[in-house]
Amino acid sequence: MLGAIIGDVVGSVYEFNNTKDYYFHLLTPRSKFTDDTVMTLAVAKWLTEDKTHSHEYLVQCMRELGLKYTWAGYGGSFKRWLIEREPKPYNSWGNGSGMRVSPVGFYAKSLDEALNLAKISAEVTHNHPEGIKGAQAIAAAVFLTRQGKSKEEIREHLETTFGYDLHRTIDGIRPEYTYDVSCMGSTPEAIIAYLDSHDFESTIRNAVSIGGDSDTIGAMAGAIAQAAYEMPKALAGYCYGLLTPTLRHILDNFERTIDNTTEDPFNLQRFLDMQQSDYATALQEMKDGEKRSHWIWYIFPQLRGLGHSSNSWIYGLADVEEAKAYLSHPVLGARLREVTQAMLANQGKDIVAVMGSAIDARKLRSSMTLFDVVSPNDIFRDVLSAFYDGKEDKRSLGFIRKMER
After folding, report:
1. What averages of pLDDT result for each successive group of 10 residues across the chain (405 residues)?
2. Which residues contact 364 (CB under 8 A, 6 or more apart)?
3. Residue 264 lies in a domain
4. Distance from first CA to last CA of the chain, Å, rounded?
5. Which parts of the sequence bind Mg(2+) (predicted)?
């Protein structure tokens, strides 16, 4: 299901600023999850928590999350559905049914179950035959891919069952394709994005680079691709980190339900990779009381969004949850404490001189503030007391409060 979320996040930047360039930037500082992700996780919550798979509980899950994330970019009819006292299906044939259905394809034990659950997931809003068909086609594609069916087998089955023309190519579609939110005009293209791919990233690039409703096409294509390919760890970890704790909890519960847990969802491996060559240097420089090298973001991590460099984007921590995971990591947590202890030995010295610049002195304060929130009255508080008169970094605290809302 994370494949759908990745497709949504990557496509979010290009939904209203279409690109036809296959080599577009996968992620930018403006990349975010949208309604596609929120409703996908609503379906996952329904499947996980309601073993009867009732229409009523699905509506409850969708409304609960939809009203929690009101800014996510819902269509007009769906917005009205969210706030109605007694919401009813509104005969939609839009691709909202296909964008949210992917958990069904991973959850179902048979193709018939996938089709039935997809129908239920669609018809609470998208009860038009084309709306139901779009959801069933994506669910079937995910399920069949999970079962190891070849692309030709999947193409033949979906064409026969749903009547879609899947013998086109992305290169053939791209030049003339325009924005289309109908199931008929976007679901086949999402499936072709997978059929015409060679790995996960190429699927997402295919989906987004045709233009159109890029986050939804990306979400549908990404879900199928996840069932076939290994997802790039850096991409998966970054998009996982963009989720709120509430949404992560739903995703994690669903993955446990289908026995598909991930050991390193935040991709903390990125820190280990950089520290392999630089940690010993950083530790020695702190012992010497003089930072001379460039390693601040992956030795003393801070919150993503506080900086503007590429390192701040790659090595910034998503929120307090990722900071907790970092501190509890057997290697990273131990190293953070060790290098922080080495820093404390410089008490009495000018912190700007120790860190090599006023900017890096501020970054250290930011890092210590974050980890003091994660582990109060720990060594991180000692650094704040020793070098910053016990005062936390207000900007970091502001980010944390904003993330907790």
Report:
1. 98 97 96 98 98 98 98 96 96 98 98 99 98 99 98 98 98 97 98 99 99 98 98 98 97 96 95 98 98 98 93 95 98 99 97 98 98 98 98 96 74
2. 296, 300, 343, 351, 355, 383, 387
3. no
4. 25
5. 34-36, 213, 215-216
Residue 25 CB coordination number (10 Å): 11
Q: Is 213 annotated as a binding residue?
A: yes
Specify the pLDDT at position 404: 61
Which pairs from 348-351 meet CB under 8 Å and 24+ separation? 349/289, 351/387, 351/388
pLDDT of residue 403: 76
Q: Is 278 annotated as a binding residue?
A: no
36: annotated binding-site residue? Answer: yes
34 annotated binding-site participant: yes
> According to the annotation, is 393 in a ligand binding site?
no
- Residue keyed to tokens 């039935």: 116
Which range marks the domain in which residue 380 is found? 269-404
Are 57 and 132 members of one domain? Answer: yes
Classify residue 232: in a domain, yes or no. Answer: yes
Please tell me the distance from the alpha carbon of residue 55 to that of residue 117, in angstroms, as a whole number.
10
Asked which of 227, 257, 287 is the last residue of a domain, the reply is 257
**3-class DSSP state of 14:** coil
